[in-house]
Amino acid sequence: MNSEVFAEWFRRQGLKVIKTASSWWVELGMRTYQAFPYQWIIQPDESELDDLLIKNRALALRYSTHSSAGEGMHSYHAVFQGDSYGLDRLGKWARKNVRRGLSKCSVERISLAELARTGWSLQEDTLNRQSRNPSFSSENWQKMCCAAGDLPGFTAWGAFTKEHGKLAASVITFQMDDWVYMLYQQCCSDMLALHANNALAFEVTTRVLEGTSTKSILYGLHSLDAPPSVDEFKFRMGYYPKPVKQRVKFNRLIAPGVNSYSYWGLKKLASLVETNATLSKAEGMCRFFLQGKAPTEKKGASILKQHDGASASARYTTALPREE
């Protein structure tokens, strides 16, 4: 049922949603499809994927599969799983930043309508700071927030400065079955020194685990184009990288043209036009595709080498993705 709600959220934003035997898929631009629910680890038949690509005239699709799968780039989901969460889960500097953030900011639930009105400046600031997706507009933001307004499972949260009551950071959560997603976290650059993001992430994680039966939170997938600092923040906040493989599959008509030479040219072009969201996403798709076909010893996501991937995997239980 939660998958249906999430699918409806996408549809209300004008995005195309498809359901196949293994998963749901949403077209996120450039005629590329992302599988969801995001926590699902799937192993679809090649015929299913080819059928999806051909019938919908899609260029590519992306999904998470088992880390032992034959094809795909070694990657991760940023997750937290456990019965409790607190300052003891964090390192020295993260604890210090959370305390500073909570001394300067209060974290509250807010309406999605309020977030639609007041959150765009934070979203625009965050995207510009991270050099990401300038094509995402104020209109897109309004539509995204309003689309979730009367759908069950969505909650908006804000961190407000105690001195002036100004919205400094925000995030949207969604209850997907026995998981909670953290979506669209953003913070005003002027408020980074207040550690509003730390306060927000800490309080929302704590309240979700204390206020619901949920013991699993997904803070996001390994991104195609986000700077490494985005996920490093999550890991400093007590989340960890759950090892998976992310597979990108191109339409068979264009797959032969995706090689190291064409990728080099695309990467060079993307570096020259850093604000072009289409180029940065295309570079990421091609990179994931090529690394997913590389020899096993060259496939590793560097972040997994910095964390205890084996123990993280043992703590993370994956249910088979099947709709009842």
Number of strands: 11
Please state the structural category: alpha+beta
**Helix content estimate:** 25-40%
Oligomer state equals single chain
Question: What does it look like?
Answer:
InterPro entries: Acyl_CoA_acyltransferase (IPR016181). This is BioF2-like acetyltransferase domain-containing protein. The structure is a single chain. By secondary structure, the chain is of the alpha+beta class. It has 2 domains: 2-74 and 242-315, no CATH class; 83-214, 3-Layer(aba) Sandwich (Aminopeptidase). Helix content is 39%, strand content 24%. The chain has 12 helices and 11 strands. An 11-stranded mixed beta sheet has the order 1-2-3-4-11-5-10-9-8-7-6, sandwiched between helices. α1 packs antiparallel against α6 (138-148) and α3 (92-104) crosses α7. The radius of gyration is 19 Å and the shape is globular.
Quick recap of the structure?
This protein is an alpha+beta fold and 324 residues long. The chain has helices at residues 2-12, 46-55, 92-104, 112-118, 120-129, 138-148, 196-211, 228-236, 260-272, 277-292, 302-305, 309-315, and strands at residues 17-19, 24-27, 32-36, 60-65, 73-81, 105-110, 154-161, 167-176, 179-187, 216-221, 240-250.
